[in-house]
Amino acid sequence: MKNFSTKLFVAILFLLVCFTRNSFAQGGGTFYLGYGVATANSIEDVITDIVITTATGGAYKVADSKYSGAIFGGYRAYITKKLEFGGTFVYENSSKDLLSESTKAGSVSTNTYAVLAELKYNYINHENFRLHSGLGAGVAHARSSTQDDVIIEKDKTTDFAYQVDAIGISYGHPFSISLNLGYGYKGIANLVLAYRLGRL
Fold it and tell me: Which Pfam families would you find in this protein's record (predicted)?
């Protein structure tokens, strides 16, 4: 899986360089920053914690779980009149306490970094209003640190990253704000602030 993720990451970077070089030459493209809640990572983590607690009869469980939400930014450009292509960098932090028989046994903190290549299709593509859907795929790298009273252990994992924005709306030009609903590494709901270079 790690070898596949590395190849996918290289392919994504290659595509981004090819498309962004052309869009910069034409003076177009959009830079954006966003924040998302209820990410795939956090939902899967909560489900895993529930399964472990149930399987151990409550002997092992977690407390004080915290999730930063997805903080992301990126760049995209039009490759047709309605289709945009770009790339996004996503960051999320999570932390929780580990309990054994209601006594704190340690804590876990995880930082997740993801790079996604994304396609965005605009059903309605007016300069000041857009209705769209999006799809993204890439690589995620997570660094976890587990601490108890005696030792600190660190672990790294590389996995497939994704985002499906089922529907979204954008308003404004050249500065715009958009709300997207979907599922993945940017969350079930994410809010985006963007700045577009040039005109549609």
Answer: OMP_b-brl
